[in-house]
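Progress report, Aim 2. The chain analyzed during this reporting quarter is listed below.
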Amino acid sequence: MTETVRQILKTKGPQVWWLPPEATVYEAIALMADKRVGAVLVCREGRPLGIVSERDYARKVILMGRSSKQTLVGEIMSSPLITVTPDHSVEECMRIMTVNRVRHLPVMEGEQLAGVISIGDLVNAIISAQAATIHQLSNYISGKYPG
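Predicted structure tokens for the chain:
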């Protein structure tokens, strides 16, 4: 059975860290550091508008000689958002991340934000699935399978 985003969110939880577009990049970096995440959503009235990542900070602030305390997240956020649904498979999400060169995907259920998954979440899901398959195959080979 193919694992879905819904299953990842059941384990990870729906917590989403976000800021309004008027927040400074400094506030975004401080929030990322505090929550130990690589990106935060930019939202207005609960609706995601974009995403700001450590990569955006490096490329759009530091390398451009801008000040993180004077630059607003709304100025540097990546938009439009590339999103997935809870029914997307892990494999589909990996493909979407690879093609679009992103590391975070907001999860939308209809018009509601259901969570955010990262490349790390997907890698962990793949490793867990592979470990379960190896365990089943080992039991089969050694004769410990049911039946």
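The two ends are 20 Å apart (CA to CA). The mean pLDDT is 90. These observations will guide the mutagenesis work planned for the next reporting period.
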